[in-house]
């Protein structure tokens, strides 16, 4: 019941693969973010079902929609109140949330060049949106940490011994359930 969250390029997919191998659990990625309430509710239920089946979720639709709708659409379908309700649900769900967020996340896109994008204008938009996404994910992490501090882990793949620290956290929070692969 592990959910990986964080901006693009933060190491979620790489961590999902390592955890999947170590824990012998499949990975589920909800796919493109839905932009209407009905599709969001359906995708949210799919994510929750997969998590209850033991999948490692590479993002969960509710949070991704919360972040991307604010940044891309400049309007928010999911309010802070709704996010807190989701966090309260998560508190009772048994889910563990790992926020992948390297300390220099905001500067990552600054290292990209115009050649990697169509135009300088496009690169500027990518940089602007990336900074906003990082700020939003940081906000969401703080909301989760406030409400369910014992089920949230901030993962920075650039730190020494970070995977060991994560493994210890998972073992502690699950009474050793994630120590070995399932048979």
The tally of domains stands at 1
**CATH class (first level) name:** Alpha Beta
- The gross shape turns out to be globular
Low-confidence stretches: none
Q: CATH topology, anyone?
A: Rossmann fold
Order of helical and strand elements: EHEHEHHEHEH
Decide which structural class fits the backbone.
alpha/beta
Number of contiguous helices: 6
Over the alpha carbons, how many angstroms does the gyration radius reach? 17 Å
Properties at a glance:
183 residues; alpha/beta; Rossmann fold; five-stranded parallel β-sheet; 6 helices; globular
What does this entry look like structurally?
The chain has one domain (2-173): Rossmann fold (3-Layer(aba) Sandwich). It is built from six helices and five strands, in the order βαβαβααβαβα. The chain has helices at 12-23, 37-52, 61-73, 80-93, 120-147, 162-173, and strands spanning 2-5, 27-28, 56-58, 96-100, 152-155. Helix 3 (61-73) packs across helix 5 (120-147) and helix 4 (80-93) packs across helix 5. The radius of gyration is 17 Å and the shape is globular. The model has no long low-confidence stretch (mean pLDDT 80).
């Amino acid at each position: 019941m592990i959910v990986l969250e964080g901006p693009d390029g933060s190491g979620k997919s790489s961590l999902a693969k390592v955890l999947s191998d170590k824990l012998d659990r499949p990975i589920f990625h909800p796919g493109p973010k839905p932009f209407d309430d009905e599709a969001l509710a359906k995708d949210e239920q799919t994510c929750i079902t997969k998590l209850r089946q033991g999948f490692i979720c590479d993002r969960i639709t509710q949070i991704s929609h919360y972040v991307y709708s604010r940044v891309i659409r400049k309007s928010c379908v999911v309010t802070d109140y709704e996010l807190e309700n989701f966090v309260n649900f998560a508190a009772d769900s048994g889910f563990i949330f790992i926020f992948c967020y390297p300390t220099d996340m905001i500067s990552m896109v600054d290292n990209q060049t115009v050649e990697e994008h169509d135009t300088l204008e496009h690169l500027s938009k990518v940089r602007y949106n990336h900074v906003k996404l990082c700020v939003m994910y940081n906000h969401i992490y703080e909301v989760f940490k406030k409400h369910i501090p014992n089920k949230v882990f901030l993962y920075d793949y650039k730190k020494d011994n970070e995977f060991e620290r994560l493994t210890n956290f998972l073992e502690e929070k699950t009474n050793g359930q994630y120590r070995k692969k399932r048979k």
